[in-house]
Specification:
single chain, thioester bond, Macroglobulin domain-containing protein, mainly beta, 5-stranded mixed sheet, Immunoglobulin-like
């Protein structure tokens, strides 16, 4: 079933992109197949694919044969992986006597670190289905935390990262971390991986640098995919932390974990420059080893 570009009805409201597609192919064959080149009465199976294949994970595709004169059909699925212009067989399976008009799931584990895969589906009484899918690391989320939101030049940025797969397990692949300045330049790169939990890292800030928003950038090794790039933003500025008081109070008869802790900053010290902006970082503190029962206070920095 073919249609000449010149014979295409003028009254048809085809989009310009489809017209361009026909014109590009006219130079090659002069005839166009609107859907695909098929024999009369023969259709392609209905195939549902994921947007990409996940490496080191179980992937699933669904094949639904079209109802025809065959009530039961054979389904043959073949997957070939490609990396560095080399191919290797990944998976092959043949399902026999499967009911037409019903969906059939085929699952397989992708263990090889490939770049892409070619999927071929042959169904009895149907045309062959072929397509290619990219393969990506099985990284669903990468939580990155710094020990402070604000740093000054020359300080050390301590980082903890927790990578998770789509199944909720810890991702054990190699990750690449980078210290990025406000202009987007990656100053330092480090590689790390974990099988137990958090990944600890530390980056030294230069003593001479640009102030502004800095980032810790992380992604799987060898990947530049935006969907697999994660970051944590922190500020670098010239600031002075003033002396402060920690006031602790315990009510009689109350458990120690209900201790009230208040932090009060003071700007009365001479060495503190009150013209600079003061930012207080507040956090919840739980004290376990308290041996006194009355209120007390402590001044830090004296």
């Amino acid at each position: 079933m073919f249609v000449d570009a010149g014979q295409y009805p003028k009254s048809c409201s085809a989009r310009s992109s489809r017209r361009d597609y026909r014109l590009q192919n006219q130079e090659k064959s002069g005839k166009y197949d609107i859907l695909q080149r098929v024999k009369p009465g023969v259709s392609s199976p209905f195939v549902v694919l994921p947007p990409s294949l996940r490496i080191s994970a179980v992937n699933t595709i669904v094949v639904a044969p079209i109802k025809s004169k065959y009530e039961n059909v054979d389904i043959h699925v073949t997957i070939v992986g490609y990396k560095d212009n080399k191919s290797s067989g990944i998976f092959t399976q043949k399902l026999r006597a499967k009911r037409a008009g019903a969906p059939h799931s085929i699952s397989f584990e992708l263990t090889s670190p490939i770049e892409k895969a070619k999927i071929t589906v042959n169904v009895q009484g149907h045309t062959k289905f072929e397509t290619e899918l990219r393969a990506k690391p099985n990284l669903a989320a990468l939580h990155i935390h710094t020990d402070k939101p604000i740093y000054s030049s020359g300080e050390t940025v301590h980082v903890r990262a927790l990578p998770l797969t789509y199944e909720g397990a810890v991702y054990d692949g190699v990750l690449e971390f980078a210290l990025v300045n406000p202009d987007g330049f990656e100053l330092v790169r480090k590689r790390n991986q974990t099988k137990d939990g958090y990944i600890p890292l530390a980056f030294e800030l230069p003593k001479h640098l640009f102030y502004g928003d800095w980032r810790i950038l992380a992604r799987p090794q060898g990947s530049n995919d935006e969907d697999l790039t994660f970051d944590a933003v922190f500020q670098v500025k010239d600031y002075v932390l003033p002396p402060f008081k920690i006031i602790m109070s315990i009510s009689e008869g109350e458990p120690l974990d209900s201790t009230n802790i208040a932090v009060e900053a003071s700007n009365q010290r001479r060495r503190y420059d009150s013209t600079k902006p003061m930012q207080l970082l507040q956090s919840q503190v739980k004290e376990e080893d308290l041996s006194w029962q009355n209120a007390s206070w402590l001044t830090v920095g004296e």
